[in-house]
Amino acid sequence: MEVFNELSPKPTTAWASFSKEEFRQALDKCNNSSVPGPNKLTWRHLKIILNQDSCLSHIVNIADACINLGHWPNHFKCSSMVIIPKPNKLAYDSPKSFHLIILLNTIGKLIEKAIAEHLQFHVVKNNFIHPSQLGGLKFKSTIDAGIMLTHIIRSGWIKNKTTSTLAFDIT
């Protein structure tokens, strides 16, 4: 996030540094049995390595530097693709007959997870998200969506309006 001042053309950074705890929380959610990316590190290996504070400090410093410099290193952009045939297909002459799985750099994925958590916290904290936005946010559920819908319907009833709802699933 950059804040621009009218008096100076240089952007000033308004980013709070990452904490080790943010990375530990992001790492705890990762599945130990996942397939490694191009850097050949699994989440299980990364959890063992980053259990040491000195190693975790280096990752936190790399993440802070990426944000402050506004640069995402090419090493984190590298990926490999695995092509797996879908079962029970009559013919495998169409691309739709295969699953494509993209494997990303594990350390890059960890930093992206920490950035996503950090951004969501600050966006919600500073009320940058409309209250009716429920999708993709932590601590928002279908119960919250139901409560919001009920509130809208009942507000309409108070004003003697008829309310209808259209729901559909986009896949």
What does this structure look like?
The protein has helices at residues 20-28, 43-49, 53-69, 74-77, 106-125, 142-158, and strands spanning 2-5, 8-13, 79-85, 98-104. It folds into two domains: 2-77 and 106-128, no CATH class; 130-171, no CATH class. The chain is an alpha+beta fold. The strands form two sheets. It has a two-stranded antiparallel sheet. The protein has a two-stranded antiparallel sheet with strand order 3-4. It is flat. It has six helices and four strands; from the N terminus they run E-E-H-H-H-H-E-E-H-H. It starts with a strand and ends in a 13-residue tail after the last helix. Helix content is 43%, strand content 14%.
Q: Quick gist of this model?
A:
This protein is an alpha+beta fold. Helices cover 43% and strands 14% of the residues.
Strand and helix layout:
Blueprint: E1 2-5, E2 8-13, H1 20-28, H2 43-49, H3 53-69, H4 74-77, E3 79-85, E4 98-104, H5 106-125, H6 142-158
Antiparallel strand pairs: 1-2, 3-4
What are the key terms here?
two-stranded antiparallel sheet, alpha+beta, 171 residues, flat
- Rg estimate, integer Å: 22 Å
Largest sheet: 2 strands, antiparallel
For the record, give the distance between the C-alpha atoms at the N and C termini, rounded to a whole number.
32 Å
- Strand residues, percent: 5-15%
Separate helix tally: 6
Chain-averaged pLDDT: 83
H/E series: EEHHHHEEHH
The share of residues in helices is 40-55%
Q: Tally of extended strands?
A: 4
Domain unit count: 2
List the strand order in the largest sheet: 1-2
Low-confidence stretches: 1-13
Backbone structural class: alpha+beta
* General shape: flat
